[in-house]
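Below sits our specimen:

——
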Amino acid sequence: MPDVTDGPLLDEAAGRLVRPYTVSDGRTRATSHFTLMTMVRATGAPAQGTFGLEHAQVLELCEQPVSVAEVAARMRVPAAVVKVLLSDLAEGGALVSRDLDPAPPGRHVLPDPHLLEAVLDGLLRRL
């Protein structure tokens, strides 16, 4: 029997019971710009518009600042679907976002070599 009280509609044997793009009414493009690293947070204001269960789940996940990637992972839906839901909520005034891109547009920042070495060392230790 699927558990419908917490999280997406999942069945242990069958998997997801609702197709991801059904959640966004078939829409595949967000109307606002979000990257996977964009931080989102609920404003606490009531959303202007009509929203479904998935929108409420997104708002619950966004009570504290969280990345778009983490919202998608926790909801177990593709990031493109989450971006559509986030766009709806942002346009309705229930959500704010902040892009964490460290470089201004058009400028590339090279990663810190010490950080890359530390990550590599950590990965090699796990092998």
Remarks:
- The first strand starts at residue 10 and ends at 11.
- Confidence is low (pLDDT under 50) at residues 1-8.
